[in-house]
Design a protein that fits this description.
Layout lengths: L1 E6 L4 H11 L6 E4 L10 H14 L3 E7 L3 H7 L7 E3 L3 H9 L5 E5 L5 H13 L6 H15 L3 E2 L2 E3 L3 H11 L5 H19 L5 E7 L4 E7 L5 E4 L5 H10 L4 E2 L1 E6 L6 E7 L8 E5 L2 E2 L3 H12 L4 E5 L2 E2 L1 H10 L4 E4 L1 E2 L2 E2 L5 E2 L5 H6 L3
Parallel strand pairs: 1-2, 1-3, 3-5, 4-5, 7-18, 10-11, 10-14, 14-16, 15-17, 16-18, 17-19
Antiparallel strand pairs: 6-7, 8-9, 12-13, 20-21
Helix pairs in contact: 1-5, 2-3, 4-5, 7-8, 8-9
The structure holds D-ribose.
């Protein structure tokens, strides 16, 4: 097992001594993330470095030591996927593994001596996670973490109150087709309003009735909306009202019933693809199959700047797009729990296409 260890100045001495003790274990490979001398350091810097590495790899664990163990645990627990437990005795060390499956423990260099610290770390490393009801509780924490995640790499949740309010109405199964369709459009345009914040602008001089004024207008080639058929059409018109000069590209994809692979049957894009920004529109990012395929197609035609705009995303779909297209930004109004066996987002809002077009 790989154990990453880090400290600030308050935990430096204990870290150095613990390294010697842990070197006696053959099943542990220690990686020291600093600090490397007794200079003053800010514990969040070390906590984030260790925590981010541990969060990426289930085979890694971390030990973080500051003066009290408190700052390190507070900082490490800010990192998604980290379950950091501050331990001051072997009982807590045992429970941290058995019940909490803690992937990091934090210690106070001014709280525990080397003997107790060694016992704590060994107990934590040697106690297996019990699973069962404890897993159920950890799932609740993971679900909360997932649904409240706002930004991660190229993934963004736009949780503006107006968007969230409208989203709660369209989730309601009693909302009818007309209202549903209008609200999907409103949400899409509010989202695009936020997403286009960083469009580049250039200076222009206009004559007001009073005299000349220096103003700013959007520069560059017109951006392109790519609605994924058919539900994406429900977002297009209202976004066009916001950006009337946007171009609309169409990509038709169907799933081959034998191979289950996506097959392109139609593709019409504006010229100068390389210089334009593309917005793939689809209310639901479920498996991520269509959105990822649309991005692949756009790239084949030379597109370099692609964003996906969806109303609700499932973690499975986000993961798929991120794996295939780490450069494509994903914007959603909500990240839901998971996909059910039929590929529907849970809790989601049902079939967006059917609800927009009243086909069910
Ligand atoms: C540093 O003096 C001290 O605040 C730090 O080591 C830690 O105890 C913070 O929680």
């Amino acid at each position: 097992m790989i154990v990453l260890i880090g400290s600030d100045h308050g935990g430096f001495e204990l870290k150095e001594r613990l390294k010697v003790e842990l070197a006696k274990r053959e099943d542990v490979e220690i990686k020291d993330f600093g600090i490397y001398s007794l200079e003053t350091a800010d514990y969040p810097d070390i906590a984030f470095k260790v925590a981010e590495e541990v969060a990426k790899d289930p085979n890694k664990r971390g030990i973080l030591i500051c003066g009290s163990g408190l700052g390190m645990s507070i900082a490490a627990n800010k990192v998604n996927g980290i379950y950091a437990a501050r331990c001051t005795d072997t009982y807590c060390a045992k429970v941290a593994s058995k019940d909490n499956n803690a992937n990091i423990i934090t210690l106070g260099g001014r709280v525990v001596g080397i003997e107790l610290a060694t016992d704590i770390v060994n107990t934590w490393l040697d106690t297996p996670f019990e699973g069962g009801r404890h897993q159920r509780r950890l799932n609740k924490i993971a679900n909360y973490e997932r649904s409240h995640k706002i930004e991660e790499g190229n993934f963004h949740i736009i949780n503006h109150p107006l968007i969230q309010h409208k989203l709660s109405i369209i989730r309601d199964k009693n909302t009818g087709t007309k209202e549903f369709r209008e609200l999907v459009g409103e949400i899409a345009s509010l989202m695009v309003y936020e997403i286009t914040r960083d469009l580049s602008t250039e200076e222009r001089e206009v004559e007001t009735p009073i005299g000349p004024a220096k103003t700013r207008v959007i520069s560059g080639k017109k951006l392109v909306l790519i609605p994924i058929l058919r539900a994406g059409l429900g977002m297009t018109e209202s976004v066009l009202r916001l950006i009337p000069n946007a171009r609309v590209g169409h990509i038709g994809i169907y799933r081959d019933p034998k191979t289950l692979q996506p097959v392109e049957y139609y593709c019409k894009l504006p010229p100068d693809v390389e210089e334009r920004e593309f917005f793939i529109l689809d209310p639901m990012l479920a498996t991520g199959g269509s959105a990822a395929y649309a991005a692949t197609l756009l790239k084949k035609h030379g597109a370099k700047n692609i964003k996906i705009v969806c109303v609700i995303a499932a973690p499975e779909g986000v993961k798929k797009v991120q794996e295939i297209h780490p450069d494509v930004e994903i914007f959603t109004a909500a990240l839901d729990s998971h996909l059910n066996d039929h590929g529907y987002i849970v809790p989601g809002l049902g079939d967006a296409g059917d609800r927009i077009f009243g086909t069910k």
